[in-house]
């Protein structure tokens, strides 16, 4: 089936058809994985559901998620670093419960392309991002009664990453918390549907672009485990030099990242607590919202900041240079959480307050948050 209106990776402003692998439905990769459907795409890769065709007839059918990265020096280096992170985690001998909630690269290999090699990463397939559960449950967002147990699992996973693996994820967001399949039959039914009705495809720059089909249908019974995924931007925390490069999507940036005041594990904790913004982004507006929610930043944080950035945003005495950008007083955590009330809301505000602190060292750790009263409170 062909279509001229498909807008996927080709809509990215830096789309280069020569860098993306020209994958096709039904193609067999590395003599083992037959592509069933395209699940999604990113600036540096496409992601596919594939069937392992090397299984013996008496073995159960095995599906994998196959991430085919773009060729190019930077893209290949990033993919190799993701593999390195997974290998380090895999080699750690630990009984920490949190390792179950971390998604790892199971295998990696290279395939040739017209413009260079493409590194392929193999993962166990997962269903969808955690936030999509609200759609299945008929609610606007994930209800607290469902969200709290998942948060406890994610905090265990994050504590394992921080305390035992010494890894900072740096890109914690809703799309990177993935829920597994409730039972194997979901995948089998989905695969049959894709074979009966393949996704449309169009040609862009001499390369086929397929429509993504990430929807596996309604929940059958219960839900699978949740896992922290996508370690393409992760870094090791146990290195001699402090980290100070840009990380995190801009609306999620921790204050020490915005101010270039060096950052560590607690930047991940800020990510868990922050609420996404959906307006036009500006660093000054972002800081202004923090000032309203948290008060003025401590001088010791500003002293560690990049002096060029600090000078544009604050006076020498620590006063914010753009007071007109500070939202009105009714912009507060309480008003931003209208979906909660009573004791549940009071405890939630306390929970979030432990994560949203100017000073990284004052934020609670994942292990401390795991035992927070809000996560065990039942309204």
From TrEMBL:
EC assignment: the record states 2.7.11.1
Q: Which GO terms describe its biological process?
A: regulation of mRNA processing; spliceosomal complex assembly
PROSITE patterns per UniProt? PROTEIN_KINASE_DOM, PROTEIN_KINASE_ST
Q: What start and end residues bound the annotated signal peptide?
A: none
User: Reaction catalysed by this chain?
Assistant: L-seryl-[protein] + ATP = O-phospho-L-seryl-[protein] + ADP + H(+); L-threonyl-[protein] + ATP = O-phospho-L-threonyl-[protein] + ADP + H(+)
Q: Which GO terms describe its cellular component?
A: cytoplasm; nucleus
Gene Ontology molecular function: ATP binding; protein serine/threonine kinase activity
Pfam family example for this protein?
A: Pkinase
Q: Which parts of the sequence belong to the Protein kinase domain?
A: 33-375
Keyword annotations of the record: ATP-binding, Kinase, Nucleotide-binding, Serine/threonine-protein kinase, Transferase
Protein name listed in UniProt: non-specific serine/threonine protein kinase
Native species: Aspergillus mulundensis
């Amino acid at each position: 089936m062909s279509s001229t209106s498909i807008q996927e990776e080709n809509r990215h402003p830096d789309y280069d058809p020569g860098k993306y692998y020209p994958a096709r439905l039904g193609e067999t990769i590395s003599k083992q994985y037959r592509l069933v459907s395209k699940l999604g795409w990113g600036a540096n890769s496409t992601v596919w559901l594939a069937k392992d065709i090397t299984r013996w007839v008496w073995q159960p059918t095995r599906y994998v998620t196959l991430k085919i990265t773009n060729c190019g020096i930077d893209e290949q280096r990033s993919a190799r670093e993701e593999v390195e992170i997974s290998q380090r985690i895999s080699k750690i001998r630990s009984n920490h419960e949190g390792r179950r909630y971390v998604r790892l690269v199971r295998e990696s290999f290279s395939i040739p392309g017209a413009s260079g090699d493409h590194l392929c990463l193999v993962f166990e397939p997962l269903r969808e991002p955690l936030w999509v559960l609200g759609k299945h449950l008929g609610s606007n967002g994930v209800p607290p009664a469902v969200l709290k147990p998942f948060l406890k699992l994610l905090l265990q996973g994050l504590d394992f990453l921080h305390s035992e693996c010494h890894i900072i994820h740096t890109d914690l967001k809703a799309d990177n918390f993935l829920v597994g399949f409730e039972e194997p039959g979901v995948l089998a039914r989905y695969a049959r549907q894709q074979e009966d009705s393949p996704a449309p495809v169009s040609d862009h720059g001499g390369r086929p672009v397929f429509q993504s089909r990430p929807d596996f249908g309604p929940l059958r019974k219960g839900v699978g485990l949740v896992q922290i995924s996508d370690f393409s931007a992760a870094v090791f925390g146990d290195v001699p030099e402090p980290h100070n490069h840009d990380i995190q999507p801009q609306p999620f940036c921790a204050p020490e990242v915005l101010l270039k005041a060096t950052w560590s594990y607690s930047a991940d904790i800020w990510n868990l607590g922050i609420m996404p913004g959906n307006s036009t982004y500006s660093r000054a507006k972002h800081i202004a919202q923090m000032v309203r929610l948290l008060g003025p930043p401590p001088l010791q944080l500003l002293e560690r900041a990049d002096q060029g950035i600090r000078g544009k945003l604050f006076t020498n005495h620590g006063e914010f240079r753009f007071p007109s950008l500070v939202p009105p007083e009714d912009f507060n955590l309480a008003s931003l959480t209208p979906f909660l009330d009573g004791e549940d809301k009071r405890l939630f505000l306390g929970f979030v307050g432990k994560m949203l602190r100017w000073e990284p060292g004052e934020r609670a750790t994942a292990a401390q948050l795991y035992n927070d009263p809000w996560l065990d409170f039942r309204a």
